[in-house]
Amino acid sequence: MSLHSFSLSLSLSSLSTALSKAAATSQEALLRSCNSSCRKHLDQLYVQLIVSGLYKCGFLVIKFVNACLHLRDVNYAHKVFREVLEPDILLWNGIIKGYTQNNIFAGAIRMYKDMQVSGVNPDCFTFLYVLKACGGMSVEGIGKQMHSQTFKYGLGSNVFVQNSLVSMYARFGQTSSARLVFDKLHNRTVVSWTSIISGYVQNGDPVDALRVFKDMRRSTVKLDWIVLVSVVTAYTDMEDLGQGKAIHSLVTKLGLEFEPDIVVSLTNMYAKCGRVEVARFFFNQMEKPNLLLWNAMISGYAKNGYGEEAIELFRKMISKNIGVDSVTVRSAILAVAQAGSLELARWLDGYISKSEYRDDVFVNTALIDMHAKCGSICFARGVFDRMVDKDVVLWSAMIMGYGLHGHGQEAIDLYNRMKQSGVCPNNVTFVGLLTACKNSGLVKEGWELFHQMRDHGIEPHHQHYSCVVDLLGRAGYLNRAYDFIMSMPIKPGVSVWGALLSGCKIHRQVRLGEIAAEQLFLLDPYNTGHYVQLSNLYASAHLWNHVGNVRLMMTQKGLNKDLGHSSIEINGNLETFHVGDRSHPRSKEIFEELDRLERRLKAAGYVAHMESVLHDLNHEEIEETLCNHSERLAVAYGIISTAPGTTLRITKNLRACVNCHSAIKLISKLVDREIIVRDAKRFHYFKDGVCSCGDFW
DNA sequence: ATAGGGTTAG
């Protein structure tokens, strides 16, 4: 059969049906993520289109373009598009949509310009895709031009176009421009309200988002689940569980509580607000949780210190062959980093090295952080060295890792190597460097590095200022630290005053400490840590009345001292201990060992500093509380359950207490073991009676 | 043919 007769044999309608079928089958195929056979089908159709001359029929080409788009192959669509001599507006819209939907935003904008050159006027559909492309690639100038073009083409009051403008400005981070567009819209739909509400949420302004939501409820527009997702997110960001629960009841009242994506946002809300068990209830009630729900649950566990639960879910996903994405992987890494388990870190590293994320920069940066936090600076360095393309954040993560371990000089050396390799530092790099200096007592170096920031065009943030205050404070230069705070160009925040207070505690500077505490109570009234620090400061100066007053303030505010817990990893199992914990099956032996250690400590001349404990306790109770601290229980358990000489690795949720710190120093010598403790701030390496932190933390 | 949302965040 000749080509000519072949083309004649095709009827218009049969080709049309074939293309519809191609679009439908290719969509299915995409779901099955096997598109090779469909590609072949498309090739055949393409030949047919060209050969038959039917590519001149606009609607057939549109169908073809749609088939291509289902295959996410915009290049193929473009190839056909170019065959058409005078594309009409429908075809132009089709191809622009194709680029936008495939996230090739520059292509969409280029096609828009080509379209104008060719003399075809855009319509409302055109703008939807072009505005989305502008938002997607954050081209504010072009976006603004497009905005004026909408007026030129008489679309100033088209709801669809105006809604897209609201979203576009929100994506630029210009919520006030978005708001102006929104305010001028009088025929607002639920989509208009959702666009402005989510715009505020995405730009970190949940308060305004909720204000708008209040207005919305006074309007006649009906709520749907999509707008409620944004509202739940707003309450999640504000950590306002009370109001969040109210929205939860509203969701139930509207019968939307089984909407899968509402479930995701509610799970996330309860998890972020610390109510992991409620989150887990949501998770469990779904027969087949979607990927986002798995991710919300895993990250919720990870962030609240439930590392093992997070990893358990992650393992379940793998064994059930549920596909994970990079968010899942990063949440799992976070979970292991929080748990501090060396064994889990090794396992996860192995898993990732065999996965498609093995070269992902984000994942590898998180891995460096994880290995460092699990106490394995060598593994962190291994990941770092393996990466060929190192960006600033990768370098910074490694620098931070050294800082965490108190290897200040290594951090600085690495920084110099980074500059040599042509990578410019950013503010994260300096957080790492300054942290490294403060954890190693490198006062002079830290001070100089802080002043180098401006040479690199980096404006210091709160974290940098607080590192400097910490650096000066622990070295005893408290008045200088205070003057430094007073000279700050930005308003000193919680971290800065917190750093001053801890410096004051180390050097028993009551007056300045009170000034810092006063600020902290104003800025962060419900954070227990500040009250404990102030109380410890008073205790160190023997001001027992004041200690009592702080205690009273805490009771009045309904605050309890955060409970300490420590975990130790034995044969790959994490065992967690709380203060005075007697729930462990080997509890009896643990307490016998604690007694034995206590006697040996006393014999070696160890005396507890009673000052640093919160009290209205009598002497005996103090001693009792001291030796019951969770880290001591973990040490005792470690000693009785491992071979002599084995290194003990312990993770504690709070900062190390002074007494346990000096006790563990001595224990490391008495039992001749290396003991590694990761507290809330850093690593302590105890060996032969000394600690790597040099007793400053 | 039309628009809006959610998980991470080194």
Q: Can you give a write-up of this model?
A:
Pfam families: DYW_deaminase (PF14432), E_motif (PF20431), Eplus_motif (PF20430), PPR (PF01535), PPR_2 (PF13041). PPR repeats lie at residues 88-122, 189-223, 290-324, 391-425, 426-460. One of its GO terms (molecular function) is RNA binding. This is Pentatricopeptide repeat-containing protein At3g12770 isoform X1. Residues 605-697 form the DYW domain. The protein is mostly helical and 697 residues long. Among the domains are: 461-556, Serine Threonine Protein Phosphatase 5, Tetratricopeptide repeat (Alpha Horseshoe); 565-691, no CATH class. The protein contains 37 helices and six strands. It has a six-stranded mixed beta sheet with strand order 2-1-3-4-5-6, covered by helices on one side. Strand 5 and strand 6 (690-691) form a beta hairpin. The structure holds one DNA strand of 10 nucleotides.
